[in-house]
Description:
Layout: E1 2-8, H1 14-26, E2 31-37, H2 41-52, E3 56-59, E4 68-73, E5 77-79, H3 81-84, E6 95-98, E7 104-110, H4 118-137, H5 140-144, E8 146-151, H6 168-179, E9 183-184, H7 185-189, E10 198-199, E11 205-206, E12 209-213, E13 221-227, H8 229-232, E14 240-245
Helix pairs in contact: 1-2, 4-6
Amino acid sequence: MLSILTINVQAAALTRAQNLLTWLLQRDDHLIILTETSNGPGTRHLLTGLRAARMFVTHQPSLDGDRGCAIASRIPTRPAPDLTAGISLPGRAPAVTLDTHPDVTILGLYVPSSDRAPAKLAKKRAFLTTVTDALTQLSADDRAHLVVGGDYNVISRDHQPRYPGFRPFEYEFLDALTALGLADIHRTLHPEVQAHSWIGRAGNGYRFDYLHAGPGLLPHLVAAAYLNQPRLEGLTDHCAHSADIDTPPAGGRGAGTRNTEAPLTSRTYSQTSGRIGG
């Protein structure tokens, strides 16, 4: 079983990062996508702690201090530079291939947030366009066992409640993922649930955090959930999002990990069945 978690760490300061690391290490996810990382001491503490737990960490700090994305994996990884070569903000889009049967490639995304300022909209549009182009250039075989996940900072066309102000290019990103055969894992398993992963100051819920899987993985989807605990405990302002895929690590449970005393384990998940985030 391959267990994946994505969580926005909200550029955590050191104290909050210490608590967030404790929460993450109490879990046994095989792979964690961390979005809204920073170049500050909180992110350094998180990534150092994950490495100390013998996880393989991929993170490219931005030279200009821009926020980013990191991937931490208990399963050995290898870089996937061909996937990310043309993406406008590479620090927001790490990609690795896991040592699994079959190989699974992970693309983490932290899409820029934006108000209506032209420069911010242009930055967001360029990032989404180059990510879509990169995914389009992959062969169908490569997309078959691809997982894309993170904080996309967009909502779907049929999101409830409806919110004005989102631009066509923002809706089109999720449309493009669907057209490329990448399915929304949570919606696939829970088609009647409107999940929310971020709650605004006025109490309005938005679904910004996603996990998408290629067609070769869809028959193996086991569970998906939005986890309120880190938001309610003040570890971040987002819910975490988890998914289980019945794809074992290469060589069997625990094979190839650097922690020979604590092999990979699978977990039993309960599936969500109701509105969350409010």
